[in-house]
Write a structure and sequence with these properties.
The chain is of the alpha/beta class and 306 residues long. It has a domain of 212 residues: Spore Coat Polysaccharide Biosynthesis Protein SpsA, Chain A (Alpha-Beta Complex), CATH 3.90.550. The chain has 12 helices and 9 strands. Strands 1, 2, 3, 4, 5, 6, 7, 8 and 9 form a 9-stranded mixed sheet that branches. The longest helix has 18 residues. The C terminus is likely disordered.
Length: 306
């Protein structure tokens, strides 16, 4: 049997309130050559019952349940590892996709050069009841031919992780660290994707992103709680670097682990550090901002902001 063109991975934990809408928004897409992979992280509510009912009714739905809660990050990895398609999309259990999201992204990827690794749409932010609270139109589109300049375009603009819910080439995602077990790992993923290829944006609003107090990233108030939610094994790990410097280190690791030329590895690492520290107004960035900005081609706005 021919594998589907697209795999949609939906990690979930105790998502009974919104998961019906999320699943329905995938199953009613106007593009039908896909599979929906649901990985239930040992939910204690009715999530499993709801998901099994959809899996029994629609052969495109594959439902898996973890024996224990393995954490949000490993569960995101699990749905990717179970994917059979050429393209992959993560889907949050509490978001809603407009009917043309998959089709628009896939058609662009099919027609675009293979250098395009991610296509994502714009979105609106909705509350717990589904009411639109605002539009989110921040762009991380990166079409430059040079990896380090694409990294700059991404990291000087990124605010939310919504582009992660676009559609990517599986062959490229396999080269990344996916959604890793540390805070802001989605930014690091975007940087890695930019190092590996172009990121294209669909200007239309095709995603309804839910933001509410029960959302995982909002419900965990302290860094220790967030780390444990991402990966329970982190309870046993000692944090060596403050978060700001840890993320900087992760960007450097990304540049040197990917198949780039030595010069691009250096430029990507330097660009990521520059954008990261300028974003957080660190004095160390100010000392070398002008020289590095000229080197990597970042345009500085009046007042010193990238």
């Amino acid at each position: 049997m021919r594998p589907p063109k697209v795999s949609v991975g939906m990690p979930v934990y105790n998502g009974e309130r919104h998961i019906r809408q999320a699943i329905e928004s995938i199953l009613t897409q106007d593009y039908e050559d896909f599979e929906l992979i649901i990985s239930d992280n040992a939910s204690s509510d009715a999530t499993g019952e709801i998901c099994r009912s959809y899996a029994n009714a629609d052969a495109r739905v594959r439902y898996y349940r973890n024996e224990t809660n393995i954490g949000a990050s490993p569960n995101h990895t699990r749905v990717f590892e179970l994917a059979k398609g050429e393209y992959f999309k993560w889907a949050a259990h509490d978001d809603e996709c407009l009917p043309s999201l998959l089709g628009r992204c896939v058609r662009i990827l099919e027609e675009a050069p293979t250098s395009v690794v991610l296509v994502y749409p714009q979105c609106v932010i909705i509350d717990e009841e589904g009411r639109v609270t605002r539009e989110y139109r921040v762009s991380i589109q990166a079409k430059d031919r040079w990896p380090h300049r694409r990294v700059a375009q991404v990291l000087k603009s990124v605010e939310l992780g919504t582009p992660a819910f676009g559609v990517s080439r599986v062959s490229v995602l396999r080269q990344t660290r996916l959604i890793d077990s540390f805070h802001t790992s989605d930014y690091v993923l975007f940087a890695e994707l930019a190092m590996l290829g172009e990121i294209w944006e669909i200007p239309e609003i095709l995603l309804r992103k839910r933001d509410y107090s029960g959302r995982g990233t909002a419900a965990n108030k302290t860094m220790q709680e967030f780390d444990a939610w991402m990966d329970p094994l982190q309870k046993k790990r000692r944090r060596i670097l403050p978060l700001l410097h840890k993320i900087a280190w992760e960007y450097v690791k990304s540049a040197y682990r990917l198949p780039l030329s030595q010069s691009e590895q250096l430029l990507c690492a330097g660009t990521a550090l520059y954008c990261h520290y300028v974003r957080h107004n660190q004095d160390r960035a100010q000392r070398w901002r002008g020289r590095l900005a000229r080197l990597i081609g970042i345009r500085l706005e009046p007042g010193g902001n990238a």
